[in-house]
Design a protein that fits this description.
Blueprint: H1 13-31, E1 47-48, E2 59-60, H2 73-79, E3 90-92, H3 100-104, E4 108-112, E5 116-121, E6 124-129, E7 144-146, H4 151-154, E8 162-168, E9 171-178, E10 186-191, E11 195-197, E12 203-211, E13 224-230, E14 233-236, E15 241-242, E16 247-254, E17 259-266, E18 273-280
Parallel strand pairs: 11-18
Antiparallel strand pairs: 1-2, 3-4, 4-7, 5-6, 5-8, 8-9, 10-12, 12-16, 13-15, 13-17, 14-16, 17-18
């Protein structure tokens, strides 16, 4: 699918939604073909390529996640197919912006493994719906399609949020709420873990997000982020790093001495973000 419809995280909302919907349609078809063992959507992650392929920047944007393993809308379709006994999933595949209806008409698509969805604008109840088993009859957990959704009828600039509440057996089990985007409010660093082994190779991904006051990632941000690092290790990645769709990632690699790495990140006039990664002594015997 990705090869036929490559999609960047910073692409238009319409393309991000279509990318997810196309994956859902193809997987729905393969689930209905009982002589197939399965089908894998190409592919999980964007990846580096050669000059004669891809989008001209030597990157193939074929993934349901970007090159840093950060999800696009399509990733939430796949996540929604998980058994709700393992995890309850709900995701509104939209941005709450003034071009709401120009972006994808009057539909709101919600990816979820719940039985039913209630939609609210602010505190006002709008509608309830079941999974779309007419157009996605073969999927374990079809998308939810809500029609006649209008930015202007909902109140335009007075809209405070759009919330989907997922229910199973009539009981609320999950919710996802989106808001109109605000100004940059906070730079956030999210390490996958905060402890490394001092073997000179161990490393960790550190995700970077520029958020508004509602902790939403500012998807139109391409701000440069500057890093300072102190301690027994090194930073792997660009410095400064230009955000793509308000996010990105770098890596921190441990040195061979135990200690503490302090990583700071700066953007514009916001308060710097800071994390600490502990480097612990290697316990195993090593070859001299």
């Amino acid at each position: 699918m990705g090869h036929m419809y490559p999609t960047k995280s910073c692409d238009s909302v319409e393309r991000l939604i279509k990318h997810a919907v196309y994956h859902a349609k193809i997987q729905n078809c393969q689930y209905g073909m009982y002589n197939l063992a399965g089908a894998s959507g190409w592919c999980a992650f964007d990846y580096n390529t050669h000059a004669d392929f891809g989008s001209g920047d030597r990157i193939c944007y074929h993934g349901v996640c970007d090159i840093f393993r950060l999800p696009k809308f399509a990733a939430y379709f796949y996540k929604s197919q998980i058994d709700p006994k393992i995890e309850k999933v709900i995701f509104i595949a939209r941005y709450l912006i003034p071009s709401f209806n120009e972006d994808y008409g009057d539909e709101v698509i919600v990816f979820s493994n719940c039985d039913e969805i209630d939609l609210y604008v602010g505190e006002k109840y709008i509608n309830s719906t079941k999974p779309d088993r007419i157009n996605y009859s073969n999927l374990p957990h079809p998308p939810f399609i809500l029609k006649n959704c209008s930015w202007w009828e909902w109140g335009a600039s007075n809209i405070t949020s759009l919330k989907a509440i997922g229910k199973i057996n009539g009981k609320e089990v999950a919710q996802h709420e989106i808001y109109p985007f605000g100004k940059p409010n906070k730079l956030v660093l999210k390490p996958d873990y905060t402890e490394l082994i001092a073997d000179g190779a161990d490393c960790v991904r550190v995700v970077i997000e520029l958020q508004d006051k509602n902790r939403q990632i500012l998807h139109l941000s391409h701000h440069p982020v500057f890093f300072e690092m102190a301690g027994p290790g090194k930073l792997i990645g660009e410095n400064p790093f230009s955000l793509e769709a308000g996010k990105g990632a770098i890596f921190v690699q441990a040195g061979r001495e135990p200690g503490k790495i302090v990583l700071k990140a700066y953007v514009n006039e916001l308060i710097p973000a800071e994390i600490i990664i502990n480097i612990i002594a290697i316990q195993e015997e090593t070859v001299p």
